[in-house]
Design a protein that fits this description.
Elements lengths: L2 H37 L17 H4 L12 E2 L5 E2 L6 E5 L4 E7 L4 E5 L3 E5 L6 E10 L12 E2 L6 E9 L5 H4 L6 E10 L7 H5 L10 E6 L1 H4 L3 E2 L1 E7 L10 E6 L3 E3 L1 H10 L29 E4 L1
Parallel strand pairs: 1-8, 2-16, 10-14, 10-15
Antiparallel strand pairs: 3-6, 3-12, 4-5, 4-11, 5-7, 6-7, 7-9, 9-10, 13-14, 13-16
Length: 303
């Protein structure tokens, strides 16, 4: 074989191998992209896939590995009574408000056009409602689904009402501040029919998939009374990335009812996936496990 022919053969082999590698790489990229589209969540955090589950969040969001994280298991015997806190006060319209319901690929959230403010509870500033979202379990409600626990007991549903400090322009700015956020957590247990949830639950099928939105009407008063006289308070973090430790948590002590049929509406209508996914992934168990208290004080106010 002449040197020229040998060179031509080697060039052909190299080109063929390069083409095969390129095709394999391209196929791999397509598989990864398809997988992410199927799951309908961001590449670096999720609830339903091992590589991006809560135990791995700290790899992309270092704050998730810090020492004052949320949620926590509230041991009532270890709480400190503080009568100086006063009740939680929520001010705003008693009328129904226009709003938007969104599936963000991790939960469903509601934003309202009416303004509501949070005060009391020992807060030094007033806080403005940004919206509320839900965390829940699966078809076995006894397994749990809430993020916070009380004396080791988990609940099938928890609603988070997110407020930002009114001295800041908006939620985005407040998230960067040490006193930026206050969240009211309300726990739900399977029980009687809850009319306050009915309209909200009836809209879930309109936002079944990640990215879908629909208009909604909601009366916050049906979810949050003007005053809450029994709650637990502690300093913690967001329960989703970035897990920033700038949240004053106010967890209502009175557990609210939700009927089994209403709970079933939640777990049967929502998906983590984007619209059009061949095998949509049901939105289930979208809660972060409880985190160590690490010496923090949990106060309790009960009028």
């Amino acid at each position: 074989m002449t040197p020229k022919l040998l060179y031509s053969c080697l060039l052909f082999i190299y080109s063929s191998v390069e083409a095969i590698i390129t095709v394999k790489m391209f196929r791999h990229i397509l598989i990864v992209l398809s997988h992410l589209a199927l799951l309908g969540h961001s590449a670096d955090w999720c609830y339903d896939h091992e590589e991006c589950a809560p135990s791995h969040w700290y790899l992309h969001y270092p704050s998730c590995g810090l020492s004052s994280q949320s949620p926590i298991n509230i041991i009532t015997a270890n709480t400190v009574a503080d009568s100086s806190l006063g009740p939680i006060v929520v001010e705003g319209s008693d009328a129904t408000s226009e709003g938007e319901l969104t599936n963000n690929g991790h939960s469903v959230e509601v934003t309202l056009t009416s303004k509501y403010t949070l005060s009391g509870a020992g807060l030094t500033d007033a806080y403005t409602l940004a919206g509320f979202h839900i965390h829940f379990g699966n078809s076995n409600p006894t397994f749990g689904g809430s993020e916070h626990q009380i004396n080791g007991n988990a609940f099938p549903l928890e609603v988070h009402f997110v407020f930002y400090n009114s001295i800041y322009i908006d939620l985005t700015e407040a998230k960067q501040q040490s006193d930026g956020l206050a969240v009211v957590g309300v726990l739900f247990q399977i029980g009687s029919f809850n009319s306050a949830l009915d309209h909200f639950l009836g809209q879930l099928s309109q936002v079944a998939y990640s990215g879908q939105k629909t208009s909604v009407q909601a009366n916050l008063r049906k979810f949050l009374p003007a005053k809450i006289g029994y709650y637990f308070k502690y300093n913690g973090s967001l329960t989703t990335p970035t897990c920033s430790e700038n949240v004053t948590w106010l967890v209502a002590g009175n557990v609210q009812p939700i009927s089994l049929s209403q709970y079933t509406q939640i777990i049967s209508n929502l998906y983590f996936s984007l619209p059009g996914a061949a095998n949509p992934v049901p939105m289930l168990d979208n809660f972060r496990p409880t985190q160590p208290l690490n010496g923090r004080t949990v106060s309790v106010y009960r009028k």
